Amino acid sequence: MIKIDAYDLATYVKAQRGGPLLTILDEVRDLVFIKDVDGRFLFSNRAHLAHMGRTEEELAGKTDFDFFPARLAEAFYSAETHMFETLTPVIRLQESVDAKGQKFYSTAIKMLICDQRGNVLGLIGTVHRIAVDSKFDVEQSKAHILSVLRFQPGITPSQMQAFEASLPKVLESH
Questions:
Q1: Residues facing 111 on adjacent strands
Q2: What is the CATH number of domain 2-132?
Q3: Which residues, 6+ apart, have CB-to-CB distance to 93 below 8 Å?
Q4: Using the 8-state DSSP alphabet, how is residue 3 labeled?
Q5: What band does 133 get if pLDDT is binned at 50, 70 and 90?
Q6: CA 157 to CA 151: how far, in whole Å?
Q7: How do residues 86-121 score in pLDDT, each as one tens digit?
Q8: Which of 7-16, 78-87, 92-101, 146-155 has the lowest mean pLDDT?
Q9: Per-residue model confidence as pLDDT tens digits over 10-40
Q10: What is the DSSP track for 73-132?
Q11: What confidence score (pLDDT) does residue 21 get?
């Protein structure tokens, strides 16, 4: 959980534009985005914008349902709604599509953004695309995923075990 000193996430994100944190996030290769509790995009880094094939203006205020097939958008929404209800970060291997309609797999880590009193304001998500073209790529991706997750704040041992158990099923099919 990330705590910020704000009562409105959209206003907070707007005030941070051009500041050091969002500038750093903009340079990250993985897809990084911030959404409010209604699933509306408030920030997307350059990698996320390129992945979506959209400009910041086209993405801001929209939801996954505006861009993804209904099945994928519903899966994203369901996981995020569950996170808001349980206050538990989302850690999952997921199928997705890019702006060109190409299917790929990725890891998604989504964490709550809360105000100082613990009220949920939204989420920050990071998505890491997984290469699954060969056995070597699968093993390298698996090792990378697990090393990243081990150092994520808020991830419980049971979440790690569940995630590790899901990896072979999805990755071995490729």
A1: 124
A2: 3.30.450.20
A3: 105, 106, 107, 108, 130, 145, 163, 166, 167, 170, 171
A4: E
A5: low
A6: 11
A7: 998 888 777 777 778 787 778 888 999 999 998 999
A8: 146-155
A9: 888 888 888 888 889 899 899 999 999 999 9
A10: HHHHHHHHHHHHHHT--EEEEEEEE-TT--EEEEEEEEEEEEETT--EEEEEEEEEEE--
A11: 85
Question: Residue 106: how many CB atoms within 10 A of its CB?
Answer: 19
Q: Render 44-61 in DSSP notation, one character per residue.
A: E-HHHHHHHT--HHHHTT
Structure tokens, 149: 């997750």
| 44, two tokens | 């997307």
Strand partners, 113: 2, 122
Strand (E) or helix (H) holding 37: none
Angle between helices 157-171 and 135-150 (to 10 degrees): 170
Tokens (6 digits) for 14: 């707007």
Cβ neighbour number for residue 163 with a 10 Å cutoff: 18
Residue 80: the pLDDT is 94
Tokens of 141: 């991706």
Terminal Cα-to-Cα distance of the chain (whole angstroms): 33
pTM of the model: 0.77
What Rg value do the Cα atoms of the chain yield, rounded?
Answer: 16
Only one residue has tokens 């995009």, namely: 41
